[in-house]
Task: structure prediction
Amino acid sequence: MLKIYVDENKCTACGDCKNACPKGELIWSINKIAHASNLEYCHVCTICASKCPTGAILIDRNAPGDDRAERNNQPHEDDLIG
Ligand code: SF4
Ligand code: SF4
Result:
């Protein structure tokens, strides 16, 4: 699942990510650092990351989702033969 991480040590809360994002009002909130939520609106254009002056944004298209759901989709080691 899609996740957007903001490095709290790099973010200056400048708001450029929110301003540049086509869905900025829906996705980005800027407090002490920027935070992305409502990612169902994100179309992974990566503009936010490219506009961030400090390189604080990391976009992961394949971040693990709910742990239990992930595990249930995987064969259990004991179930594997050979
Ligand atoms: S553009 Fe980068 S530094 Fe500025 S608020 Fe967004 S994440 Fe923080
Ligand atoms: S990838 Fe695009 S749509 Fe998604 S948060 Fe960044 S700028 Fe907004």
Summary: Strands lie at 3-6, 28-30, 34-36, 57-60. The chain has one domain: 3-79. Residues 67-73 form the longest helix (7 residues). The mean pLDDT is 89.
